[in-house]
Design goal:
By secondary structure, the chain is α/β, with parallel strands linked by helices. Helix content is 42%, strand content 15%.
């Protein structure tokens, strides 16, 4: 199994990391972290989340963060939104590279806790959302499955359920004349092991060999980098990670759990393996120290 020559890393610390922190963080500090990460040469940085402050109070300053961070040429800036209102807020800033990704959660219990929707309601909402994406001229290119490897509320997730959800999401896109180019598998609560990951990734590769697979990995049980390495051995070349290992899901059912895989650890591992990332590790370590 040959490792990729280059992997693309999306830095999610400013969004997922800040979302999970319990105490208030000054808006100026959030902006400074985004600007420091912009100097590290990431291909993409997830800046903030346009959600209700009632449910995620750490994101109450999303509009101010969006207004004041500095865009750097060559970097894409993304954000999270869960409904049309959030999308409108994000689009109004004209600073984000917004794409219309279609996500579902394969765990019924976690879907309700995380998005306040059942799986069936999510499918119905996505049908309407694609129309909004088209109206705004936003590309729809990827589908994603959260809790793809396991769930703290339902336990192990049968890979067949994940395959069924991916199929359904691709079918929804096809009904709107959208051809999906990529599939995101999110280990939202850190249940993946290298063996479990190889099995699911292999199934997806066999079924949709023309789709690019991206992985969103968490280090809840200390296997994050092992899982990333196993995926790289299978040719996966796109990963999410968070500076300083920040992050975690506030509705994941764990208190004090480790966050996403650490960006600096992932970059260091890749460089030691001869896999390029384009990321300046020295600047990234400085950003991690600032985050701490």
């Amino acid at each position: 199994m040959a490792l990729p020559k280059f992997i693309t890393i999306k830095e999610v610390g400013p969004r997922e990391g800040m979302q999970y922190e319990k105490g208030p963080i000054a808006t100026a500090d959030k902006i400074r972290l985004v600007d420091m990460l912009s100097e590290c040469n990431f291909k993409e940085i997830e800046v903030t989340s346009f959600v209700s402050p009632k449910w995620v109070p750490q994101m109450a300053d999303a509009d101010e963060v969006a207004a004041k961070f500095k865009r750097r040429p060559g970097v894409e800036y993304s954000c999270v939104f869960l409904n049309a209102k959030g999308l409108e807020r994000a689009a109004a800033h004209k600073k984000f590279d917004i794409r219309g990704n279609l996500y579902g959660t394969v765990s019924e219990l976690f879907s309700k806790k995380n998005t306040n929707r059942t799986i069936a309601e999510t499918y119905a909402d996505l049908e309407e959302r694609i129309s909004v994406f088209h109206k705004l001229g936003l590309p729809v290119e990827r589908v994603g499955v959260m809790a793809a490897f396991g769930c703290n509320y339902e336990g192990d997730i049968d890979p067949a359920r994940v395959m069924t959800m991916i199929t359904r999401l691709i079918e929804i896109a096809a009904r709107h004349d959208v051809k999906i180019k990529g599939i995101v598998l999110a280990d939202t609560m850190g249940w993946a092991t290298p063996t479990r990951l190889r099995r699911l990734v292999g199934m997806v590769q066999d079924r949709w060999p023309d789709k690019r697979i991206s992985l969103h990995l968490h280090d809840t049980r200390g296997l994050g980098l092992s899982n990333a390495f196993a995926a790289m051995e299978m040719g996966v070349d796109e990963f999410d990670s968070a500076v300083g290992g920040l992050g975690g899901c506030p509705y994941g059912g764990f208190k004090g759990a480790a966050g996403n895989i650490s960006s600096e650890d992932l970059v260091h591992m890749c460089h030691e393996l001869g896999v390029e990332t384009g990321v300046d590790l020295d600047k990234l370590v400085a950003a991690a120290q600032e985050a701490e």
